[in-house]
What we know:
This protein is an alpha+beta fold. Helix content is 55%, strand content 15%.
Amino acid sequence: MTDQAIINGLYRELLFVAMILLGILLFNNLVLYKQKLKDRLSLMLLFGVIMCSFEILWTFCENRPQLSALTYLGVCGYMISFVSFTALLNRYILNRFDRLPKAIWMNVLFYIVPLGIFFLLCVTTPLTHWVVRVDETGGLHEEILFDALFTPLMGLYLLTALISAVEYAVRGRRKNSAATRVSYNMIVFGVLAPAVYVLEIILLGADSNYLALSLAVSVSLVYLTTNVSTHTLLETRAKVEATESDLRVATRIQADMLPNIYPAFPDRPEFDIYASMDPAKEVGGDFYDFFLVDDDHLCMVMADVSGKGIPAALFMMAAKIILANNAMLGKSPAQILTDANAAICSNNREEMFVTVWLGILELSSGKLTAANAGHEYPVMRSANGQFELIKDKHGFVIGGMDGLRYKEYELQMEPGSKLFLYTDGVPEATDASQELFGTERMLEALNKDTSAAPQDILKQVRSAVDGFVREAEQFDDLTMLCLEYRGGKQDGA
């Protein structure tokens, strides 16, 4: 075996290692950094892997007459992938510096025409032998168009990218820190590739060849993409951390929008009330509310906005304010829902909706007037009795259709009666086998200790839900409210 054959074998092994590294970087780009394959950086890595693969095939089959067809396949695939890689690198760099040609004719002239001609010549070269030729012994010969077209085209794309990087580093580095980093990395790429190439020739004492060139370019590409991807990851992480910080603030703002100081009405002996909201995400779409409309009327709201996350939270706050404003005008529950629906439908381009149960309790008499817009059935416990579902008549959801009118109904609460309101996150909580918690289990939890205070009633239900779902991830907000009616002032006297 000749010294050149040994050196070429070593090149192939090193090139195989480079191909593996490029493949790992491509995998990281797609999986870790969540980039798509059509992303230019991902495509560069893909063509780098293909280039190395074809060159390994080419050099392995060369000088083996029985593998001449594979030699043609390897060298043509290598040339096409190498030029495609340099064109992608060129477009990636120019795009980062906002230097890409805007005119269609310039893109056609600079990219499509030369690449199309080169691709056609490579595909037909086994017949025409214009670019390369494989002789009877399997040896590969570079014809006139190999150095007259392949090398200049590759050099043109790389050189224009390098010149753009140098120009941006000198003149535009203060405009965009991310683009400046890319320019520095491209300059290092432009220096590293020829440096590695020359070093290979000197250390191995070999003639210059495209194995050495491909290895040098592959090593430089590993450097470039590693640095770019690392900075992309760091920038993404910084954005995620900023988003998480904003979400934490949004969570606190949403929590502060809901009544959260207990006892809520320490100077009102007629009733006790407690509520909680645990969002499935940082912010949620469920909400509750309670407030005194006047000295003798307590308004209670339990609602569930369609969707989750920030959109639902924004819609939730708007719906909460609209409902409260209408209630404070002294309207009946049915009128409150009717007017709230009209207000939301008048400007609801996202077509979101909210289910609402709203009730107004007359504290002096215990009369509860309520209306239901597509929400869960309320649960009520009569004095010295058990919690039971109140299967009231539902109206349509708020925001679902304009022009609706809602109906209301009345319930009588006696001293000792309790009212439990909730969103569908309670009965629809699921365990690992996707079984629902259900209303029956909810009623069992409520009736475990019917004499408990409202806060303890909610703890009972939450404990039962947690014990049922265990480690299963929950996808819905969990919101509950419990009211205990103790009687009017004359009853408590």
